[in-house]
Design brief:
The structure is a single chain. With 122 residues, the chain is mostly helical. It has one domain (4-120). It has helices at residues 4-31, 36-64, 67-87, 91-120. Helix 2 packs parallel to helix 4 (91-120) and helix 3 packs antiparallel against helix 4 (91-120).
Length: 122
């Protein structure tokens, strides 16, 4: 049986987060008096991690044969990375939080797509 609601909810919240985070996080960083260079470096971490993390997580998921627990763990670690933004005020703190968030966040979508395809029999 295909878990339509869970998969649909995941896709909705994943892309809703990106739609809200990408345009408004830069404004938040500007309000904290970060320079344009700092904001550019922080936002580029998302793209850098999208080059590295999916391959590592995909290999781990294939080796362990368990995609769902990895997606859940990645979601929890993404929340941990995001929560750093509430407690940090320095560039280094934001860099660490963004690196953790981006590393685990970028791992989740390819694994969820693989799960979706396996449920659909594609």
């Amino acid at each position: 049986m295909v878990p339509y609601r869970r998969l649909s909810a995941y896709y909705f919240f994943y892309f809703a987060f990106i739609g809200v985070f990408s345009p408004y996080f830069t404004l938040y960083l500007k309000s904290l008096q970060f320079s344009a260079w700092d904001i550019g470096v922080l936002m580029s971490l998302m793209q850098v991690m999208r080059l590295l993390a999916p391959n590592l997580w995909g290999c781990l998921a294939d080796r362990l044969g368990a995609k769902t627990p990895i997606v859940r763990g990645a979601a929890l670690m993404s929340i941990a990375g995001f929560s750093c933004f509430f407690f940090m005020q320095s560039f280094v703190g934001f860099f660490f939080g963004m690196a953790v968030l981006a590393f685990f966040w970028s791992a989740a979508l390819p694994l969820v797509e693989a799960l979706t395809f396996s449920y659909l029999g594609v």
